[in-house]
Amino acid sequence: MSTSKKKDVKKATCLDMNDTDLVEVHAKLGREKHPPTKHFIQAPLVFVFLFGCLIFFCAIQLAHSTNNFQVHPPLPLVEMTMEEKKEKNLKRKLARGKKLFNSRCAACHKPDGLGEGLFPPLVSSNWVTTDPGIITKIVLKGLKGEIDVLGKKYGTNVNMAAQGLSNRETADVVTYARMAWGNDASEVTESQVEIYKDEASTQEGQWTGDQLKDIYKDSFKGD
Ligand code: HEC
């Protein structure tokens, strides 16, 4: 590319040029234009590529740390063992039993189960903590006549009426009385209450203490 040729190009008009000249001139112009933009085009491509990689790795990281993009993933289901279920049910039963006791029994036997005056205590009483049939049958049918509780006589002036509770309520309140205030007896189930109800179906009116002592001799051996 001599300077003389450049001059020729400048001076020349379209009419003076043949096809070969025109092609040559355009090629020359093309070569002169492109070199400055060469790296200028590459730079943004590198940034786009790096940015793409960044988004890609962030997405992978997010997917891992958020459990497939769930911002609040559901809590893992923890299966309760039979023991845990039983314990939970017993806790609920005792809570229901406590409520019932406070509304249906506590007026006489007191909320702490210690009784007062003419009303006998339920804490450490044979009638409560030995065979579950005894307390359940008392709640089902009531109790009249003299009895001995922890060395003291009760029932000479006042007696206890049948409580008119459902089987479930009876099971709840009896279980509570057998397990509260330091009493450490077994739970009473609804189906046990059903059996005791059947057994007591021929009983007219309230039990007497002697009747129950006769049925549950083992529970009063020490007396
Ligand atoms: C109106 C007062 C009254 C209410 C209410 C009452 N009782 Fe009694 N309870 C008595 C009396 C009085 C005796 C003694 C009866 C007798 O010997 O003739 C007694 C006796 C008992 C006994 C046997 C004796 C003992 O202390 O261990 C148990 C068990 C008992 N009650 C449980 C309950 C439960 C459970 C409830 C509530 C569901 C309840 N009672 C509600 C007055 C009551």
Describe this structure in words.
With 223 residues, the chain is mainly α. The chain has helices spanning 3-11, 19-33, 38-65, 82-104, 106-109, 126-129, 132-141, 167-179, 190-199, 209-215, and strands at residues 142-144, 147-149, 152-154, 160-161, 207-208. The protein has two domains: 12-78, no CATH class; 82-220, Cytochrome Bc1 Complex, Chain D, domain 2 (Orthogonal Bundle), CATH 1.10.760.10. A three-stranded mixed sheet has the order 4-1-5. Strands 2-3 form a two-stranded antiparallel sheet. The chain is rod-shaped. The termini are far apart. Heme C (HEC) is lined by residues 104-105, 107-109, 118-122, 125, 127-128, 135, 138-139, 143-145, 147, 149, 154-155, 158-160, 163, 173, 177, 209.
Main sheet makeup: 3 strands, mixed
Q: Could you name the CATH class of the largest domain? A: Mainly Alpha
Let me know the average pLDDT. 88
Tell me the series of helices and strands, N- to C-terminal. Answer: HHHHHHHEEEEHHEH
State the gist of this model.
It is rod-shaped, with a radius of gyration of 48 Å.
